[in-house]
Amino acid sequence: MRVPPYNRDPGWQRFFSGTVIGAILGWLIFIWMYGTSVDIYVSELSEYKDTVKKLEERIDILTEDNDKLNEEKDQLEIEDFKITIINHEKYMLNSFSSSSIIARITEDLNHLVSKDLANIKENRELLIKMIENKRYALDDKEYYFEVNFLYIDTTIEIDLLIVKVE
Q1: Are 165 and 152 in contact (CB under 8 A)?
Q2: CA–CA distance, 120 with 92 (Å, rounded to integer)
Q3: Which of 33, 136, 152, 156 has the fewest beta carbons closer than 10 A?
Q4: Can you give the pLDDT at residue 152?
């Protein structure tokens, strides 16, 4: 069996040359399309890397700020007191008597103003005992209090119950 002489027939020569040229053009188009899409993906990837880098830097800055704020919060100081007597109606205290007792309690606690908040929070039991163990005299009567609620922040909020009147 012999191979037919396709190299001499111009129709077959055009077919094979067209196939080779088509394969080369197809390969070039494929490389161009692949290169374009990879270029787009690489540019998107670099943008994402830049974004991630910026966000990581921002996270670092925010965590540093948060740490500084936590340190400052630990160093916060007491500014004011808010004291209320819950059961003043039961013992028939008028607003003047109630406010004068609150003023005396505030005078006792005034040494805590501009003290470190963390130390006050650690010694909250001492603060409670200081209020509960003291008697406050008004109009020939002595009032003893129990701390019902104590909230310590830059403003100390205290709710008191009158326990005993002598």
Answers
A1: no
A2: 33
A3: 33
A4: 84
Please say whether the beta carbons of 147 and 132 come within 8 A: yes
* Alpha carbon distance 124, 147 (integer Å): 11
CA gyration radius, the chain: 43
pLDDT digits (tens, 9 = 90+) for 23-56: 999 999 999 999 999 999 999 999 999 999 999 9
Tokens found for residue 112:
């805590």
pTM exceeding 0.85: no
CB 76 within 8 A of CB 117: yes
What residues contact residue 6 under an 8 Å CB cut-off, 6+ apart? Answer: 12, 13, 16
CA distance 104 to 109: 9
Here the tokens at position 136 are 């406050």
* Adjacent-strand bridge partners of 83: 158
Helix, coil or strand: residue 80: strand
